[in-house]
Amino acid sequence: MAATPEPTTMAGPNTTTSSIPTHPIAVPTHGAGGSFTILAATVVPSQDPLTVMNLIRDIDGWPRWNTFCPHGKITSRNEKVQAHPGEESWLKIGDQVKFDVHMSGDGLVSGRKRSREQEVEVTVMEEIVGGSGEGTIGPEVWRSEFQREEARRGRKGWRVAWKGVGWSYWQMHSERVMEFYEDGEGGTEYLCWETFGGVLGPIVRRTVGGQLVDRFGDYASDVRGFFESPSQ
């Protein structure tokens, strides 16, 4: 696999970044290639990676913080993976969920209507041991795309991913990966990217690419902001 240059917009301790990298980033189901990627990053202080990931897993909690996709409904359960008591609204691998998308980022504004619905299937949910990127994506992809293995070595974390459903592969395919790493200071480094492919990929980039960059940045900021809120 050809090396992908390291993104130059990784978040610092007090920033959130969002951009379209020069080259598409590989994803678990569809691998390398695709039309384009949206990449966002932030640091969530004073929270461990599992806590941050579970905020995103709990779809009933989305209306408390998620301005991009504030409402979701699990449409198909993976019955092979049992939910723990009190976690019935938490996403598990193999679940399918349909959620509202607010492309203007106004999902928490009363009376605003969604732009569209999106249905996805959870494809990955795993612990990252040692922080080397081991798991579904594979360490060779992690090294080639972010070239940060030495910085991450020894840090633990979690990974969750979901892919879009409802389109033929040749028309449109997409998958979002979110990773949560110990930042070494008691907080969590959050990385999120979604890669789009298919014949509609270039059209999506041309028509709403800028909005997606903004919304993915909002999403990262919303995650951070939830934990920084005095009520938490």
UniProtKB/TrEMBL annotation:
Residues 11-21 have a biased composition (Polar residues). Residues 1-28 are annotated as: Disordered. It comes from the Eukaryota. This is Coenzyme Q-binding protein COQ10 START domain-containing protein. It comes from Hymenoscyphus fraxineus. The lineage of its organism: Eukaryota, Fungi, Dikarya, Ascomycota, Pezizomycotina.
